[in-house]
Amino acid sequence: MIPRQAIAEITELFEKHGSDDYYGEPVSQLEHMLQSAMLAERAGADDETVIAAFLHDIGHLLPSEAAEDHMDEYGRVDHEKLGADWLRERGFSEKVAQLIEHHVNAKRYLTYKNPAYFNKLSEASLKTLAFQGGPMTAAEAQEFEQNPFFRGILQVRGWDELAKETDLEMPPVDQYLALCKRYLERR
């Protein structure tokens, strides 16, 4: 797929669903993803990591009419895998895909490893955690730690948790869409 077409499809998803509420949180889908990208950028993350932070919840925006595809009112089941696969098909790297595909596993990992993390989760994050399998087991955590993108995945998860602020001035979506386009053109 050519970069222009991929960006057009992403833009269309944001136009259709970006203003939707971010499940149980005080921000929209787009505000959440922009805040995640902004946090990644401020932390000095590389382009692929900023892109992953920006698009980490794109799976929630993909069309679906089937009730079984949803976690009640908390978004798409397996949105992380759906989004990662959808982005792979559009030319994004395995690093971008892995950071997105495992950001839910990072929540499961952190709730296993750190009970204080569990206690800080918002009500919506706790509800989705139940749908997502709950905290990892020791064996799952050990396997997850072997992922070559483990540290980056945890970073994306951290930004995901923080990206729920209201009345925050954010850069325009076009800034991150342009980053995605330049990135795809270089690949």
Automatic annotation (TrEMBL):
Superkingdom of origin organism: Bacteria
Matching InterPro entries: HD/PDEase_dom, HD_domain, HDIG_dom, OP_Dioxygenase, Phosphonate_degrad-assoc
HD domain: residues covered: 29-124
Gene3D superfamilies linked: Hypothetical protein af1432 (1.10.3210.10)
Record-given protein name: Phosphonate degradation HD-domain oxygenase
